[in-house]
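Reviewer 2 asked us to include a model.

Predict the structure of this chain.
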Amino acid sequence: MAPSHRAAAEDWLSQDPDPGTRAELEGLLDDAAALADRFGARLEFGTAGLRGELGAGPNRMNRVTVLRAAAGLAARVRADGDPDAGVVIGYDARHGSERFALDTAAVMAGAGLRAWLLPRPLPTPVLAFAVRHLGAAAGVMVTASHNPPRDNGYKVYWGDGAQIVPPLDAEISAAIDAVGRVDALPLAEGWTVLGEEIVTAYLDALSADLPLGTARGVATAYTALHGVGRDVLLAAFERAGFARPAVVREQAEPDPDFPTVAFPNPEEPGAMDLLLALAAGSGADLAIANDPDADRCAVAVPGPAGWRALTGDELGGLLAEHVLRHTAGADRLVVTTIVSSSLLEAIARAHGVRHAVSLTGFKWIMKAGGPGDRRVFGYEEALGYSVGGVVHDKDGVGAALTAAALAAEAKADGRTLAGLLDDQARRYGLHATAQLSFRVADLSLITGALARLRAEPPAELGGRPVTSVEDLADGAGGLPPTDGLRLRTGEARVVVRPSGTEPKLKCYLEVVLPAADDVPAARTRAAAALDALKASLTAALGL
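Predicted model (structure tokens):
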């Protein structure tokens, strides 16, 4: 056993305020492998904040880790010199979330900052909204979003209501490194617990800002996936005049163990099965799912072969065109990311509005554009959407409302969302997308795969010659450097990058084909092309 690991564990025990993690660690003091895992590395604070497995030690999410993160954030907020600076804190219903939020509030108050705590477990977009609504200097959302039950996380927002980007992440990380023992931190109880008026303000802002039109004749089914979205979404639908959605009973209440799903992520196979069954049995026109912290939104629609979930890119294209039909002005800006479909650029061009591409993640989407741009819509293919200006982050509740308005408008015109997708394919060409993900236990496998791809990029993909290879680490199109590669053939584009929140290597595939004459035939060709790309990538990556 490395003596340093044992000594670090004993030092941790002497300051850990949590009896549960103390007992856990005491039982591991003679387990060299366990101590090396927990004390041989630590969770790194970055633009995604912190996210990791619950447990004792610096390589886990726990009260010591959170207290240190809160103290570092407080120091960085104080460094700006605003004597009235405040931090608003939200949390979901995961294991440990409320305790972590209370610890954060105590640290902020102890540092002489104003601290506001949301009144109960609430969606992440409510926290993002509250930062700007309250004029806070920063915000913290305790959530691991759609990660497995064993995880939790710590997401940081700045005063613009958006997630932090460099160099703020490095500055906060450095401030965390400078924090001493957590049992020496000054803590105080002078924080403010907000009332339901903050939720009411969020709902009022959605009703006033979203392009909801006047049609309301749509029946919906909904699941919260054991998360915190249900009550806020139902209130939003009622306030906007939509009929109450039918709710998946088994997944309606917050449950940190997520008992009905393998992963609480609408993108994962099987996660929406109960929702689709309810939609089919209740005669719904539309099925909607939020992830557990309700910042993402998935939509499914009925078709000749049964219900199917729209891809993030399909819904992104439909919502973008809906927003542009209901807004005006040449200063409008629509934004998506380098891994999302290129369809949005074609839509923007047809509507005469501005278009921007950002790095992956809503923290970058919110920074896209320039002077004179009015961002009306942003999306990423991972089911994240921002409509209007209420929330400077992805908002699964606002997206759900807008999707319901889109479906109601289509139904009133005798149309379906599937029909609207066909219209877009005819007008802009079929932009078919898919993902290929490799989940690993050892992150070095991802590093090795990317190194091999850089050293020997494939000469062909899916039976077509590769025409260009861009290393995104060098920057691309004026974007900041990021780890990943982009490869193109004549009709296809592939982006390969490591996930920022999970131990996955992710591949984003797009095929663009003409479809004006026969959309079904184009879809068949595109599906075959995507399958061929997946096979080529699997062989090239060796995972």
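The mean pLDDT is 96. The longest strand covers residues 430-439. We have added this to the supplementary material.
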